[in-house]
């Protein structure tokens, strides 16, 4: 592809990603905390606060895995509802709220459904679990108010297909937010980070999850992901990243609102 995953053959990559996430599913959440020192929670909070969810919204969380981002979105919407005075109106809107957790891997979704059960959300009509491929979504055009993909886009085979699908399902004015890890550029911190990710993370993977190879893949996939390449955007008069650049290019042709942060 044009996004730098040439070394791995396409079918090999999707097969490998399938194996990795089937294998890590049961330990995924605890490993996220261990590997990031809990930081992933703060990053996801930031993502959801930037999304600015609202009662009645239709939202698609792609590569949603065990549901972390979707739980946070639903929690935010429920808090808005609790604060709202017009309970009746808000109740109607809650009926309409739909948050779709879409992931290609049934094992990850099953862990997510179990977590939903533990949180008393299993019967919640607002949360819908969907097995599906980010590159070929089974949702209608122009149906979503929001689209998030957290730590997912580097695992797909064709990033451009994922972006095109996101664009297709979003309504005009709908919001696309992508949270991803990339490389550290600051000297010294970069060396520390490299040591941590290439030596410490696979060792933790072996120790905690008994699976060194999958964690080796996760570290590798971050290294292969495009760095925070910056380009100057005339439209926004600011430096933006590669993925935002794609969206801005589309925005020039169409007025779908893309927020850059
Ligand atoms: N978003 C979740 C989070 O932040 O905790 C899970 C992220 S996890 C690192 C990456 C997820 O992407 C896995 O659950 C994996 O199954 C999913 N995935 C990989 N390729 C996919 C694809 N083509 N379509 C949908 N999901 C995919």
Automatic annotation (TrEMBL):
Reaction(s) the record says it catalyses: a 2-methoxy-6-(all-trans-polyprenyl)benzene-1,4-diol + S-adenosyl-L-methionine = a 5-methoxy-2-methyl-3-(all-trans-polyprenyl)benzene-1,4-diol + S-adenosyl-L-homocysteine + H(+)
Residue intervals passing through the bilayer: none
UniProt: S-adenosyl-L-methionine binding residues: 66, 103, 133-134
Compartments it resides in: Mitochondrion inner membrane
UniProt similarity note: Belongs to the class I-like SAM-binding methyltransferase superfamily. MenG/UbiE family.
Function comment: Methyltransferase required for the conversion of 2-polyprenyl-6-methoxy-1,4-benzoquinol (DDMQH2) to 2-polyprenyl-3-methyl-6-methoxy-1,4-benzoquinol (DMQH2).
Protein name as annotated: 2-methoxy-6-polyprenyl-1,4-benzoquinol methylase, mitochondrial
Organism name: Xanthoceras sorbifolium
Gene field: COQ5
Residues of the full protein shown: 29 to 289 of 390
